[in-house]
């Protein structure tokens, strides 16, 4: 069956926020557009038509071109009518339809601009015994279906539903009669009458009758004609589960797409320095904004373009694949559809149990720390003649007065060693410390249950000439921390208008506004409860919140220097006294004109303009730790008064503001051509595209800022003098001058002022593609594109390098020798090869200089050469070969696809070593090569197919992704092991290779006991292997999964639904829970629980010694050693969703066509994790928080 219906041309994504002029224009559009919904739905039009011996289908297509009316019919019905001839001039539509349908046994009915072709119906021959049935027909979304044929089985008695889906039918008063409901694209449904006189029918889509259309952004292509690898996800599938953003919803739905770690990658990583994320296209044009800004409720379909034949039309932005999003359009003419969704998500409280987080609890750490400090004060220096016990105690006391970080256990042992407290008092203090649980106290005061709410309202309506969509989405999240909150608003309007028979205009505006409040920047204050010792008390003796001291903050036992601010901080107050507020606004304006030049030829112009701005303000009050740090850092002694004076304002805090903005535009002009003659069909597009991107910004700093008084004292500050003060001679921390530049001037003052350099790029492109189809069986495809950019092309031969693709397809199911296979609905073989490109904007073909600040001596601008010229710079290229199979069997009950691909990246950007005489040691150039090859499998199967909406159904969709990744060519100048661990690219190995130091056990030699050893050259061992050659390293695997499997199950019965998604990630490794050496300062934060099994002379474990047997040197090897390398395979249930659609007889009583309720569980405990340490590979620690979503959907 086929529905002859044009799709709306409207394309874009939009919103309006805080712009009065835009709001006024939007109001005018809505007023005009929605007011036409109830306008005149039919006007008499004079038509002329002359055809000879053609099918009714061809007649209807010509009538659609002249009138705009859409025809709904069954192909089977029309095939029985034969050919017709019509020659009529200046007649109305009714006259022409009467002639066309004469002697065919068919008739028509006009329903709101839709002409429904159906058999002629008659009433029963015996009217004396009859009943009248009434009812309505809707789809599963609750939308009325006009034009549904309702036929009394075994007779010609029937009717067609009206524009609201309602019908009235008189039938004989007999038991066991059956009504047959049929509609284009829907499964035929039979209902046996058993006394009911009011019927509510819900029809389900019949995928076997739907001609799937793939949207590439530049054009719409029928699946039968597509030679590329594409996966399409409909809005119905997306609505099976709720996720805050699109990427999470695509997880495990698209074979070849990895969302591991929240980072979307299609068909493996194909670049080292360039962009690796797929290009996002919304309603036909690429967008510069984040994919997270898309409204998940307003997506009609998602098409993921994976190979060159599907994506090469995007040229130099296509190497990483394309995600094409089409937003929803108005559904029903003559009425306004209103949909409302509300969701609330509750997250589990964060698990702060120390053992669950692989950490010692307070009792365990106090015990181990006490063993160490007993050794430190009484035995550590027994063999050192230059040290005595009194000297040890004296030095420790000096550390306290110098402001070193001192933990309570250490201080208690110091007091005991100094004779200030006895052993019993020491034991009491340690016992009290063992009872503390800092993480739990932190969670009780700082954390709160995270709650996220989202609300969506959409209004859609259309008439003969206008189509309007207004969607408003609001999301709020308390972020699970006090004094934190985020609000997000997305407003989108899209409309289209038939300005003339030959001209359609589409226009949209989308605005996103985000407001985020969170803790400000302070390197000394950490919001991780595990960064503080577990035995630390959160409260003072009186119950108030205690001050904490971090590195370079001093300690609670030191005497405060006269005139200096105490740098202890109260976490609860600090969250209020130092806040960052981010305000972000993004606007996107889109216009589109479609010119219908002659039949088969159209011209289209599109323009999109995006502007975004972000304003980040950090306000630290006078009481904040950051403001007190600045004040202390820039204090100096007055030589006359011998008192401290301050070089920064004594009162007030600071206000640091960073403003960035971006302006982006894309203009496109395109010709579209289609023609069918005999068994031949040609479709082609050609166009030009131009694009510009520009970003810039500025930063400002206000000192002595008082928010209440709106006053400041920045003008009193001599920043030149402050910049020259590298160390404070008066502010002593850890026995040495406070490093002002490192911890005060650079992070707070210098970084708070200046400009964000402007970056502007321009691009130009020309493109063409064409598809030839013969007899609906054989497809030949080709595309060509040339891209130009201002960052490449110093050498003319690298300007505008061509990017292209070719593809062939065979629709085997249309072959005559396969037509008798009733179980085969669709079988297509595909092959494609093509070249796509990628951009790295961190390199340029010209020598570049970076400007700096004004020189304080010359008062002239300063600039430095930052990169040498590279005339050979060019696009990265990916050459992809793809062989694919698409199938649908048993009325599409079994369906899916299978693809094998090889994607080879050439001219990949990577660093190369330069001759030092050039003035540069290295630069990034097109010198590397990468290959990805893999298999993608998608299978869908309907275990049970319902006869109606309330029947039982069970559908399973399985996706399997396997990708093998290898660097074919790269120069890695690494000579030391540490260099290769840091930059892991090596020929013959994966892009994200893991290189591990080979753990050789724990040293038990005198003076070296407890230290980790690693194998180095010639089989020797060393405590420090980082400076050894790269040959000492062991390849540990790769960090990105090789295999991804997703299995989505959907079960429905009687309005109830159950869905669950299983995900498997495997074939990869991870470094986790490193067994690092434990030093004296390590006791200031929780130790890993593995140290309960640390090495001792009696316990020869693989865990470094602590306390008396602690290491004397620190190496980075422990973080990437073989003894902390784990398998990262896991199997999880990602979501479990339970839904219920209320019966229509209940919803209609309140004037609502559909009410759906939903409950969803996200991220429950993993079903299986391969590593035996219980480490969650997605967090490298404890499992992700589970969350619970409650939602309601209403349709009016």
Radius of gyration: 36 Å
What helical percentage do the residues reach? 10-25%
Instruction: Count the DSSP helices.
Output: 18
Q: What is the 3D shape?
A: elongated
Mean pLDDT: 85
Please, what is the oligomeric state? single chain
Q: What's the main sheet like?
A: 22 strands, antiparallel, barrel
Q: Uncertain spans, ≥5 residues at pLDDT below 50?
A: 1-44
Domain TonB-dependent receptor plug: 223-322
Pfam families: CarbopepD_reg_2, Plug, TonB_dep_Rec_b-barrel
Protein name: SusC/RagA family TonB-linked outer membrane protein
Domain TonB-dependent receptor-like beta-barrel: 650-1026
Task: Give a verbal description of the structure.
The chain has 1196 residues and is mainly beta. Among the domains are: 2-119, Phage tail protein beta-alpha-beta fold (3-Layer(bab) Sandwich); 363-429 and 529-560, no CATH class; 633-760, no CATH class. 13% of the residues lie in helices and 43% in strands. The chain is built from 18 helices and 58 strands. It has a 22-stranded antiparallel beta barrel. Strands 16-21-22-19-20 form a 5-stranded mixed sheet. The chain has a 4-stranded mixed sheet with strand order 1-3-6-5. A hairpin with a 2-residue loop joins strand 28 (578-598) and strand 29 (601-620). Residues 650-1026 form the TonB-dependent receptor-like beta-barrel domain. It comes from Odoribacter splanchnicus.
């Amino acid at each position: 069956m086929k529905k002859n219906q044009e799709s709306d041309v409207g394309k874009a994504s939009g919103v309006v926020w805080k712009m009065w002029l835009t709001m006024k224009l939007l109001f005018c559009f809505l007023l005009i557009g929605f007011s036409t919904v109830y306008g005149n739905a039919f006007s008499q039009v004079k038509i002329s038509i002359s055809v000879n011996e053609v099918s009714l289908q061809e007649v209807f297509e010509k009538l659609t071109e002249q009138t705009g009316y859409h025809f709904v019919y069954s192909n089977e019905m029309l095939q029985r009518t034969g050919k017709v001839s019509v020659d009529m001039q200046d007649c109305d539509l009714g006259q022409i339809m009467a002639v066309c349908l004469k002697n065919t046994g068919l008739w028509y009915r006009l329903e709101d601009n839709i002409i429904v072709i159906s058999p002629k119906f008659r009433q029963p021959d015996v009217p004396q015994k009859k009943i009248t049935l009434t009812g309505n027909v809707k789809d599963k979304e609750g939308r009325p279906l006009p034009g549904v044929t309702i036929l009394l089985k075994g007779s010609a008695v029937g009717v067609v539903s009206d524009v609201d889906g309602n019908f009235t039918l008189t039938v004989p008063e007999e038991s066991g009669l059956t009504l047959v409901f049929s509609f284009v694209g829907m499964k035929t449904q039979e209902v046996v009458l058993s006394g009911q006189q009011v019927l509510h029918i819900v029809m389900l889509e019949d995928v076997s009758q739907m001609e799937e259309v793939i949207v590439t952004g530049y054009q719409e292509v029928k699946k039968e004609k597509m030679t590329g690898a594409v996966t399409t996800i409909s809005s119905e599938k997306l609505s099976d589960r709720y996720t805050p953003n699109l990427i999470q919803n695509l997880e495990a739905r698209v074979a070849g797409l990895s969302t591991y770690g929240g980072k979307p990658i299609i068909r493996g990583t194909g670049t080292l320095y360039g962009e690796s994320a797929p290009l996002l296209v919304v309603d036909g044009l690429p967008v510069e904004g984040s994919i997270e800004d898309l409204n998940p409720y307003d997506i009609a379909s998602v098409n993921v373009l994976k190979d060159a034949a599907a994506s090469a039309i995007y040229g130099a932005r296509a190497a990483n694949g394309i995600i094409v999003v089409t937003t929803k359009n108005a559904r029903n003419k003559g009425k306004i559809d209103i949909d409302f969704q509300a969701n609330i998500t509750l997250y589990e409280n964060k698990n702060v149990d120390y053992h669950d987080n692989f950490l010692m609890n307070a009792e365990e750490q106090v015990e181990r720390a006490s063993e160490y400090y007993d050794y430190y004060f009484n035995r550590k220096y027994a063999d050192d003649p230059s040290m005595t016990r009194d000297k040890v105690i004296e030095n420790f006391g000096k550390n306290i007065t110098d402001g070193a970080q001192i933990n309570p256990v250490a201080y208690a042992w110091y007091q005991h060693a100094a004779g200030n407290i006895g052993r019993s008092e020491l034991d009491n203090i340690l016992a009290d410390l063992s009872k503390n649980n800092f993480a739990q106290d932190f969670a009780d005061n700082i954390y709160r249950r995270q709650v996220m709410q989202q609300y969506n309202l959409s209004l859609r309506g259309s008439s003969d000439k206008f189509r309007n969509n207004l969607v408003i989405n609001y999301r709020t999240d308390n972020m699970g921390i006090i004094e934190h909150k985020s609000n997000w608003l997305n407003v989108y309007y899209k409309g289209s208008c038939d300005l003339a028979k030959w001209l359609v205009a589409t226009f949209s505006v989308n605005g996103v506004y985000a407001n985020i409040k969170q803790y400000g920047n302070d390197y000394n204050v950490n919001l991780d409860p595990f960064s503080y010792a577990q035995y630390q008390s959160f409260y003072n003796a009186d119950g108030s919140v205690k001050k904490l001291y971090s590195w370079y903050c001093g300690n609670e036992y030191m005497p405060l220097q006269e005139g200096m601010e105490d740098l202890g901080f109260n976490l609860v107050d600090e969250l209020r006294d130092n806040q960052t507020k981010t305000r972000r606004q993004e606007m996107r304006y889109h216009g589109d004109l479609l010119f219908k030049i002659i039949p088969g030829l159209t011209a289209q112009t599109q323009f999109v303009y995006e502007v975004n701005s972000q304003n980040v303000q950090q306000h630290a009050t006078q009481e904040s730790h950051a403001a007190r740090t600045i004040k202390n850092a820039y204090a100096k002694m007055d030589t006359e008064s011998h008192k401290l004076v301050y070089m920064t304002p004594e009162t007030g805090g600071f206000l640091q503001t960073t403003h960035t903005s971006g302006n982006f535009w894309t203009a496109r002009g395109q010709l579209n051509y289609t023609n069918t003659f005999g068994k031949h069909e040609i479709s082609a597009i050609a166009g030009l595209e131009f694009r510009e991107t520009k970003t810039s910004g500025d930063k400002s700093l206000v000192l002595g800022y008082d928010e209440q008084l709106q006053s400041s004292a920045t003008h009193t500050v001599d920043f030149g003098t402050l910049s020259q003060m590298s160390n404070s001679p008066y502010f002593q921390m850890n026995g040495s001058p406070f490093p002002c530049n490192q911890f005060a001037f650079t992070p707070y003052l210098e970084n708070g002022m200046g400009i964000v350099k402007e970056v502007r790029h321009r691009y130009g492109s020309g493109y063409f593609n064409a598809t030839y189809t013969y007899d609906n069986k054989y497809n030949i495809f080709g595309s060509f594109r040339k891209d130009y950019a201002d960052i490449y092309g110093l050498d003319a031969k690298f300007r505008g390098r061509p990017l292209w693709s070719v593809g062939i397809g065979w629709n085997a199911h249309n072959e005559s020798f396969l037509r008798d296979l009733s179980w085969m609905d669709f079988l297509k073989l595909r092959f494609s090869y093509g070249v796509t490109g990628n951009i790295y904007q961190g390199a340029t073909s010209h020598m570049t200089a970076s400007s700096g600040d004004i020189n304080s001596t010359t008062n002239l601008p300063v600039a430095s050469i930052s990169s040498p010229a590279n005339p050979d710079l060019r696009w990265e290229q990916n050459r992809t070969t793809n062989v694919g199979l698409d199938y649908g069997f048993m009325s599409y009950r079994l369906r899916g696809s299978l693809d094998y691909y090889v994607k080879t990246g050439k001219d990949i950007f990577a660093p190369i070593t330069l001759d030092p005489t050039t003035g540069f040691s290295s630069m990034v150039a097109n010198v590397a090569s990468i290959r990805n090859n893999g298999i993608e499998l998608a299978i869908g199967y309907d275990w049970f197919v319902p006869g109606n909406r309330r029947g039982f159904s069970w559908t399973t969709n399985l996706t399997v992704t396997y990708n093998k990744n290898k660097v074919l060519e790269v120069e890695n100048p690494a000579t030391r092991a540490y260099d290769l661990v840091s930059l892991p690219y090596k020929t013959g190995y994966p892009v994200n290779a893991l290189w591990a130091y080979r753990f050789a056990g724990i040293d038990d030699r005198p003076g070296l006991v407890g230290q980790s050893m690693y194998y180095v050259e010639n089989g020797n061992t060393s405590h420090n292997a980082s400076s050894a050659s790269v040959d000492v390293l062991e390849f540990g695997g790769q960090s990105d999964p090789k295999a991804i499997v997703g299995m989505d199950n959907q079960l429905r019965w009687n309005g109830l639904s159950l869905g669950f998604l299983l995900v498997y990630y495997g074939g990869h490794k991870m470094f986790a829970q490193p067994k690092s050496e434990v030093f004296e300062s390590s006791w200031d934060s929780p130790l890993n629980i593995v140290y309960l099994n640390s090495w001792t002379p009696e316990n020869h474990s693989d865990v470094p010694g602590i306390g008396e047997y602690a290491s004397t040197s620190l190496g980075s090897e422990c973080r990437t050693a073989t003894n902390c390398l784990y398998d990262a395979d896991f199997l999880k249930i990602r979501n479990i969703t339970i839904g219920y659609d209320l019966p229509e007889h209940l919803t209609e009583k309140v004037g609502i066509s559909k009410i759906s309720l939903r409950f969803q569980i996200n991220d429950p405990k993993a079903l299986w994790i391969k590593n035996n340490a219980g480490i969650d590979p997605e967090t490298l620690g404890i499992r992700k928080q589970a969350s619970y979503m409650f939602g309601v959907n209403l349709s009016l």
